[in-house]
Amino acid sequence: MHNPFFKNKGPFNIDKLLKLCGIKNIKFIKSKVSNIRNLDDAKKGDITFFHSKKYESLALKTKASYCITTEALQKFLPTNCEKIIVENVLISTAKITQLFYPDSITDNFDITVKDISKTLFKKKVNHGKNVLIGKNVKIGKNCLIGHNSILEKNVIIGNNCSIGSNVIIRNTILHDNVAILDGCIIGKKGFGFFPNKIKNVRYPHIGVVIIKDHSEIGCGSTIDRGSMSNTIIGKNTYLDNQIHIAHNNKIGDNCIIAGQVGFAGSSTLGNNVLIGGQAGISGHLKIGDNVQIGGGSGVIKNITNNSRVMGYPAKDLKNFIKDNL
After folding, report:
1. What gap in Å lies between CA 236 and CA 233, rounded to an integer?
2. Active site positions, annotated
3. pLDDT tens, position by position, 23-49
4. Domain ranges of the chain
5. Which one, of 206, 219, 216, lies nearest residue 175 by Cα?
6. CATH 2.160.10.10 fits 114-323, yes or no
């Protein structure tokens, strides 16, 4: 994953990372660690993490030099990857990610914003009243921005995009011909933390939101940026009003998602997926291509291509109808 917005403060000596994890007396070769990345993105010199057997296939192929993991999972890692055994993989990963990317923990309001009338965009963008623009913002041709909207720092907008009123966007990339309707919040940090008896540990979010060409995001929807990867909305995908998409979700092309649907984190939807209103999609799932999910359904398992499901838990549509006659 390439992140154009958050600056990597590394490299750091491996000893410093081990100390953050509370590990002592492990004799690794003295070396610098360049970055922290997902299993599939990591390169030589990086550190990664492996916390669930769901990701066994990625662990087997990782190119990372170091991996934070558990006793039970270390056997799935390549021999050239040094294993760092900890009690809680995700908390250790959070601490190390915060070291590399200290600006990714909080999302306080952006003090860099200026009224659009005081920026280079005042004559280039058709805008309403009280529009604010932060640092590191790029806006393409023929774009509209409605009243009271804020483009906070780190936003790239393509050509022919329409941003409604009362919208807040940060850490986001919009491709061409994207419409963001009124009241949306896009690119804020996700709901990522680990419960602790003394103090909950907040997980850094170093990813971005990417919304591809010809997509539309309905009124009052929220899309969280990714934690270690990006949150992606595919081409020509339409979201109805009041939809929540949590961090790291990947939504395919040509999807139609009705109002009040909620996605937990890190699920993947294929292309041409239809989802009825008020459905819920659990985290870390894979939904195939051409899937139809009935309104009010609760999806808690993977769904194969060309399936039609409904109910809670979601089941094949024919079985659902049979069971509810």
Report:
1. 9
2. 247
3. 876 666 678 999 999 999 999 999 999
4. 12-104, 114-323
5. 216
6. yes
